[in-house]
């Protein structure tokens, strides 16, 4: 049986104040042994470098455990930040959560 895909929905502004909460939300399924994570960013309107650091650390953690992580539903401003910082090359980004889950399920 294939590993289940865990979806973590993140909302609001991701900055130094609430990046730790995002990190805890992503790490919760990882700490329980999840190997496939989709981070739904459709509700995120702003992401600072603190948020980018959390996503990068989470990606490294999931890969070190032999898993995969996808990002989904990026708003235009967040996508622009990813493109400018080069993070778009590090992550697999899907337009919707459903597509990201499907890509990990196959």
Q: Would you write up a description of this structure?
A:
- The relative contact order is 0.20.
- By secondary structure, this protein is α/β, with parallel strands linked by helices.
- Helix 1 runs parallel beside helix 2.
- The model has no long low-confidence stretch (mean pLDDT 94).
- The chain is built from 4 helices and 4 strands.
- It has a 4-stranded parallel β-sheet with strand order 1-2-3-4, sandwiched between helices.
- It has a single domain (5-105), classed as Transcription Regulator spoIIAA, CATH 3.30.750.
- The radius of gyration is 13 Å and the shape is globular.
- The chain has helices at residues 19-31, 49-64, 76-85, 97-105; strands spanning 5-14, 36-47, 68-72, 92-94.
- The longest helix has 16 residues, at 49-64.
What secondary-structure arrangement, pairings included, does this model have?
Elements lengths: L4 E10 L4 H13 L4 E12 L1 H16 L3 E5 L3 H10 L6 E3 L2 H9 L1
Parallel strand pairs: 1-2, 2-3, 3-4
Helix pairs in contact: 1-2
């Amino acid at each position: 049986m294939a590993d289940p895909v865990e979806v973590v929905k993140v909302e609001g502004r991701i900055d130094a104040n609430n990046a730790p909460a995002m990190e805890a939300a992503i790490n919760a399924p990882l700490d329980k042994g999840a190997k496939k994570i989709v981070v739904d960013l459709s509700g995120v309107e702003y992401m600072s470098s603190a948020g980018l650091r959390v996503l990068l650390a989470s990606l490294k953690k999931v890969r070190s455990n032999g898993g995969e992580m996808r990002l989904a539903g990026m708003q235009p401003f967040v996508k622009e930040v990813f493109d400018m910082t080069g993070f778009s090359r590090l992550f697999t980004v899907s337009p919707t959560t459903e597509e990201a889950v499907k890509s990990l399920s196959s």
